[in-house]
Amino acid sequence: SVIHHWERELNRFYPRIRVYPYHGPGRRRQLLQALEPIVFVTTYATATNDVAELSKVPFLYLVLDEATSIKNPDTKRTQAVKALNAAHRLALSGTPVENRPAELWSIFDFLMRGHLGKYGTFVRLFEERIGAGDRAASEKLGRRIRPFLLRRTKDEVARDLPDKIEMDEWCGLSPEQEQLYGALQETVKQLRTALQRGEQVSYTTNILPVLTKLKQICDHPALVSGEKVKEPGHGRSEKFDWIVAKIDEIHASGEQVVVFSHFLGMLDLLETVLRRKGMSYIRIDGSTTRRQAVIDRFNAGQAGVAICSVQAAGYGINMTAANHVIHADRWWNPAVEDQATDRVHRIGQDKTVYVYRIMVEGTLEERIDRLLMRKRGMADQIVRAAVGDSDRGWTRDELLELLRPLD
Hints:
Elements: H1 2-13, E1 18-21, E2 38-41, H2 44-49, H3 51-54, E3 59-64, H4 76-83, E4 86-91, H5 102-111, H6 119-131, H7 135-145, H8 154-157, E5 164-171, H9 175-183, H10 185-196, H11 203-219, H12 222-225, H13 238-252, E6 257-261, H14 264-277, E7 281-284, H15 291-299, E8 305-309, H16 310-313, E9 324-327, H17 334-341, E10 353-360, H18 364-386, H19 396-403
Parallel strand pairs: 1-2, 3-4, 5-10, 6-8, 6-9, 7-8, 9-10
């Protein structure tokens, strides 16, 4: 759907240029050798798979949409993109820094190799100092990238864009959730102690599974119980009940809503309720086929509710038929959440947009909320310095804060 979106926009602004979606098993590699001007629109995955052929083509311009897709310099995707040959390069991103300043280094290594020095030097001069709260380092980095950064805010390019009202909603744990949450606290305590002692603790194998389970418990007990739920049941999760009630309220008003979650199980539970209520809805996750047709159906008003995986629907698409957004759970960096919200609050929106973040008090979600505010401030500070005005990326101290008991 992102490819089709670019194809539509290119044809709208420059109808005389030939646009070719270079994607899928039927893609015509011979067109890469064509003499006529062609705009190739492709995906990062296709570019990675076809890097041998694509790297031989002398492109005039190479434009990266969602340039933070190459924020990790060690991935095959990043290395493939940097291997492509182009006279001019552009990187587009609403959030050039998500978790840490080193992500910006990787983007500039694509744009102007060497401009921000070697990676190790950058980490020493900027990453570590900015992470420690050194404002002078942020300003120095901002001055370094300022000549090559063009920033356009929504206020500048969409002066008539309606207001966006963001609300944090808080709820508690049900007795069932409290029992499940409490059962994990000994494991949390052990991990916290190991980190405090300086022991080597694997984030992927030891910490992430526990944090994920705690987040799932906050959403609904069924996500961790392994049960096959035909009906979520009222009272098992105050958060889930709040989301359903809010959907009912929005639906009754005749307006449309997009619900984002990071768990497919949460989408399954919501889908069960929507079916029972007889509500028209669409679902977008990694398995959704013909995504653009599904999105078009929603934007045409043929469905009142969209339940979406953030990973599948959080960027590159328009869902401006809705003017309500519900974030059922929080991701590990604020940019992902902001990008998802911007599927609704963007050019083409003519109503006030209401954004709801529903969180459980006294749990990991409260810690995540505080850390996301801090990360958003760090990213804003760098960008503000640059214009003259984190997949995850938690530090050890941030992990300790996540695992620390609430006061």
